[in-house]
Structures are given as C-alpha cells and as structure tokens.
Amino acid sequence: MDKQLIQQCGDELYTAMLERTPVRPLTERFSDITIEDAYNISLRMLERRIEAGEKIIGKKIGLTSKAVQNMLGVGQPDFGYLTDKMAFSQGEEMPISDRLMQPKAEGEIAFILKKDLMGPGITAADVLAATDCVLPCFEVVDSRVENWQIKIQDTVADNASCGLFVLGDRAVDPRKVDLATCGMVVEKNGSIISTGAGAAALGSPVNCVTWLANTLGEFGIPLKAGEVILSGSLVPLEPVQAGDFMSVNIGGIGSASVRFV
Fold first, then answer.
1. What is the pLDDT of residues 45-62, one digit of tens each?
2. Distance between CA 253 and CA 13 in Å, rounded?
3. Which ranges carry the Fumarylacetoacetase-like C-terminal domain (predicted)?
4. What is the DSSP letter of 222?
5. Can you point out the beta strands (E) in the chain?
6. What is the pTM of this model?
7. CATH architecture, range 56-260
8. How far is CA 1 from the centre of its chain?
C-alpha cells in the first residue's frame, strides 16, 4: 500500500472510533494488505489521537492464546498502544455507551515497568527484573470493523482493537507470585462466567512481555519505565453493555472490578 492509502485508512479508522460507526474490513477492500501495512495504518491512527491531545502511557499485547491465533490463522501475537484517555481507575464507571461500539471485556495481568526494556535478546528474567509490579486488569476491547469480522491485518490496523482498560488497586511484586499457574476467575453480574490461568497467554504473561520487548526492539522501540503493559487475556472475550458489572480475581495478585454505563 502506498503512503497516501495508508494515511487514508488510518484516518478512516480514527473517524470510525470518534463517530462510533464501524467500517468494512480492510482485508475485504485491499486484498494485498500486509501486516506491515496494517501497523503503519495503526501508527497513523495513533498520530491522530496524539494530535488530539492524548499521551502514550503503555502498550497492549493481543492474540496471545492459541485459540484466538487459530481463529485468525496466525502464529504470532500482535500489539497496540495505550493512551491516557483509555485508562480508568478501580471503582470508576466506564462509559462504554459513549466511547465504544462493540465492546468485549477480558481479564488480564498488567505489568508496570520500573526500567526500560530494549530488545532483541530480552529474556523472561530481564522482564521480571524490569517490572515494578503486576496488577489485575480488565481490558475492554472494541473493533472499528463491522461485526468483528477481522483478520490479523484488520485488528493490527485498528490498534489491536484497543478500547478502554481498568487496573485494580493492589500492586504485587511479580517475583512473589507464580504468573504461569495463578488462577483467574471472572464474574459478570454476580455469576462466574469464565476461569483461566497465566499459562493461557503464551505459557506465561511474562513470555508475552518478553515477546513484545524483542519484537519492538527490532524496530528500535523500547518498553519504557513507567509504562503499563497489558499482557493478554487469560479468559474468553465477554460482550458487555451498559448496566453490566464485572469483577476479576487472580490468585496471589488480587481483584479488579468495573461497572459499565
């Protein structure tokens, strides 16, 4: 794709986000779109957000489970950028009716970094040494593509389907919990709807952050001290709507909850 078309697609996705009006899949319209094209489109979308006053505060990793990778026919995760406008605090209502169009919630473990990580060559031990704390998290993903009819290029172009997120208020030293075996229980409106474990995300959430540091390092992009890194869902995506209340509890880490309005 040429630069003009990449910019046009990024602008289209940004407008779709603002107006809450989904677009046709890019992969239906541009059969030759590559993953590299898609990342360049996502950077244009991000550029528009920054021009509007948003600030980058971290990154998210998606497509970490084998089930989702198989569904999209890919063998690798993807990533997107988090901005300050996406972040909500524990106990704060999340206005999905005003901000999102096809929201789905997923329970995750968030990493807060205290040191920069710059790949390639980053190991899981490096990630743990650079992590200040981990927290329970709800990421509420959204797609600017009609009916979530996405292939890998569609979600990559759409900033990895980033929506909003909320962090729990209890921070835990990642060296004091087994992130591969820790269990997760997700409740919606008082009923348990899913369970999972850290191993659901590439064997461990630490492996996800390691992948991201090394992948971005190839392009000279570091993970920075102070950034929030969402490491990928440990449970299936759950559609949500205004009025729903969800909570997630992670063994050894704590809980997070969110009410949608």
1. 999 999 999 999 999 999
2. 36
3. 81-259
4. P
5. 56-62, 78-83, 87-89, 93-94, 104-113, 131-141, 164-167, 183-188, 191-197, 228-233, 238-239, 245-250, 254-260
6. 0.95
7. Alpha-Beta Complex (3.90)
8. 26
